[in-house]
Write a structure and sequence with these properties.
Elements lengths: L2 H23 L5 H22 L11 H27 L2 H8 L2 H13 L5 H18 L2
Helix pairs in contact: 1-4, 2-3, 4-6
């Protein structure tokens, strides 16, 4: 298995674990404040990782195009987290998580539109199955 596939699979596992841990931690805490706590933990964790790997750079040395899109990505991430925690607070993790994973479908369509990527027939079938699966899971 290639390295990127191992990391993608690990990402999926940790995202799944996030749903269960967050749902458990959201008891009697406003979802926005819970997201804030999560963000602080992530900041500390990433500070330690970047420091340990000696990956610090001067912000002035960064490409302005890259910096703009990383900022926009951060805003999108924050909005996603706020919505995700609010959904977890109000609904069951077993239903919120599959709907959240429709982000895969959105990412594929956005990558086709904005990045010029393309899919083969098998990949289109996979996207259709993901979409169908999410719809089946959320329809009672």
């Amino acid at each position: 298995m290639t390295e990127w596939k191992v990391f993608a699979l690990a990402s999926a596992f940790f995202a799944g674990l996030t749903a269960v841990l967050a749902k458990t931690g959201l008891q009697n805490i406003p979802s926005g404040f819970a997201t804030f706590i999560r963000t602080i933990v992530i900041l500390i964790f990433l500070f330690l990782i970047v420091t340990a790997k000696n990956e610090w750079q001067s912000f002035s040395s960064l490409n302005k195009h890259s910096l703009l899109f990383l900022i926009l990505s951060g805003i999108a991430t924050g909005l996603s987290w706020l919505c995700y925690f609010k959904a977890l607070q109000a609904g069951p993790a077993s239903l919120v998580a599959p709907i959240d994973k429709l982000s895969i479908v959105f990412a594929v369509f956005l990558s086709i539109i904005f990045l010029g990527e393309s899919l083969c027939l098998a990949q289109w079938i996979g996207i259709a199955l993901i979409t169908s699966g999410a719809i089946i899971i959320i329809c009672k």
